[in-house]
Amino acid sequence: MAKKPTEGEHGHRPPAPMVDEVSDFEVLEMAVRELAIEKGLFSAEDHRRWTEYMDTLGPLPAARLVAKAWLDPAYKKLAVTDGVKASLQVGIDWVNSMPTNFGTPSDYCNLRVLEDTPKLKHVVVCTLCSCYPRPILGQSPEWYRTPNYRRRLVRWPRQVLAEFGLQLPPDVDVRVEDSNQKSRFIVLPMRPAGTEGWTEDQLAEIVTRDCLIGVAVPKPGVTANAKRPVHPAVHPVHHDH
Amino acid sequence: MSKSHHDRTHHVKKATGKGDPQCFKGEAGPPKFKVGDHVRIKDLPDLFYTRCQVYTRGAPCTVAALVYESPAAEDEAWDNTDKPEWFYSLIFRQKDLWPDYPEAYANDTVETELSERWLEKA
Amino acid sequence: MSSRNKLMKHFQLVGQLQPALHAPQHAPYPDTIDHAHYRAYLRSSHDVGGEPDVPITWEEKEEEQWEHNTFVTCECLAWRGVWNAEERRRRQNVDLGQTIYLGLPYYGRWLLTAARILVDKQYITLTELNNKIDEVRKRYE
């Protein structure tokens, strides 16, 4: 991975950019990565393998876990009692799917699936950093990482959820899950009306990332997160490996 | 230059094929608390690092689950892994955390995980 | 044990302690730091749950290539035993101090911490790091 900009391995760096186009962060990132490799702390191959592993991640396995749980009560029971075991059936091995054979260092291996009921709605935050179940859900959205979300959700959850477009009636209790140690969480929301007879594929499509964090609920016909402004990257990551 | 004396292998040896926190299973001894116990969060000194949120200190809560055994974050943050503790999933009433929480939503709750050192009988 | 009432006041005080670029008085006299101020200054900067804040627009963000590389570098450092995730979180969310914690981008903190661990654990010297930074910068001149 340690390449000069003119020989960018994946073609994602413009050749010889002007000096003011290279940020201090980009310079330091290259310096740290190259030094770590030169000192043998990890190899360029390690870095490449981890990058490739990251490219395989996204919310689809978690959406499929929810869809399966909606269709199969026995699987739902497994999901809420042993999220790690249930993940195997959607292709995620929390210990061995990744380049290590001990899980990802930052996500650990203890998925918990939080089951919503007609009277209880879960929503996830990490007030201390931004713990997130990457192996089954991909990278966290930027808003989830903001101090603002982390400050307010745990104390003013109904107001924050309303800002996400989710108005909850008073007879539905809100449970904020503050993910602060080694467990990671996804929400198993209620299956919405109007999905009777749907297949697992159809159901999985309406379980968006936001539904799995808990700031939205699945609705027939809604297969994407709510539209929000997108802050563009100067040199965006390319997933073309 | 190779002055570093840090053991880079202990975690990979312990956790390979098992995962973390699974690799600490059975190392914490008998748990002090059980599901359903009413406990309170101690306001212990927390110089330099903790993962016990200040908003929980002194607040009553209920043990929802014994989730795993692991070194406490305060130890593991300096790579000390000799003394795993039980970790508990705890449920707090929002009203017990924030005095200004609306009465209309008295059953709203927060759930979070803390290691045994932070808990005492309510 | 602090009373819950005192803790609620603590949340107000830490809001006022958020770094101000124009702070006029630094390194105060010891007798001006009471228990409340000691606790507020020593608060782990990552422990933001419950701090007052105003609504903002929720946005998505495209990831920079360096941000992605930084995440992967940090995971590789843990994979190969240079640090564990708790050590990383302590360093990047608390040790950097509140000004950097609140003032730099999310992955900026990851990156500074990855640099720092190499120096602190003596895998590289600070001189080597600075020389490498200089060398990388020159590639773009």
SSE blueprint:
The complex is a heterotrimer of chains A (241), B (122) and C (141).
Chain A: H1 24-38, H2 44-55, H3 60-71, H4 73-81, H5 83-88, E1 110-115, E2 120-125, H6 134-137, H7 142-145, H8 147-153, H9 157-163, E3 173-178, E4 183-188, H10 200-205, H11 209-213, E5 230-231
Parallel strand pairs in A: 1-4, 2-3
Helix pairs in contact in A: 3-4
Chain B: H1 10-15, E1 38-41, E2 60-71, H2 73-76, E3 84-93, H3 94-97, E4 109-115, E5 119-121
Antiparallel strand pairs in B: 1-2, 1-5, 2-3, 3-4
Chain C: H1 4-16, H2 35-42, E1 60-61, H3 65-79, H4 85-95, H5 98-103, H6 106-120, H7 126-139
Short description:
The complex is a heterotrimer of chains A (241), B (122) and C (141). With 241 residues, chain A is an alpha/beta fold. Helix content of chain A is 36%, strand content 11%.
Summary tags:
heterotrimer, A: 241 residues, alpha/beta, Nitrile Hydratase, Chain A, 2 domains, two-stranded parallel sheet, two-stranded parallel ribbon, 11 helices, 5 strands, 11% strand, disordered N terminus, C: 141 residues, mainly alpha, Cyclin A, domain 1, globular
Provide an overview of this structure.
The complex is a heterotrimer of chains A (241), B (122) and C (141). Chain A has eleven helices and five strands. A two-stranded parallel sheet of chain A has the order 1-4. Chain A has a two-stranded parallel ribbon with strand order 2-3. With 241 residues, chain A is an alpha/beta fold. Chain B has a domain at 39-121: SH3 type barrels (Roll). Chain B is 11% helix and 30% strand. Chain C has 141 residues and is an all-alpha fold. The longest helix of chain C has 15 residues, at 65-79. The N and C termini of chain C lie far apart (58 Å). Classes of the chains: A alpha/beta (241), B mainly beta (122), C mainly alpha (141). Chains A and C meet through helix 1, helix 2, helix 7, helix 8 and strand 5 of A and strand 1, helix 3, helix 4, helix 6 and helix 7 of C. Strand 3 (173-178) of chain A pairs parallel with strand 4 (109-115) of chain B, so a sheet runs across the interface.
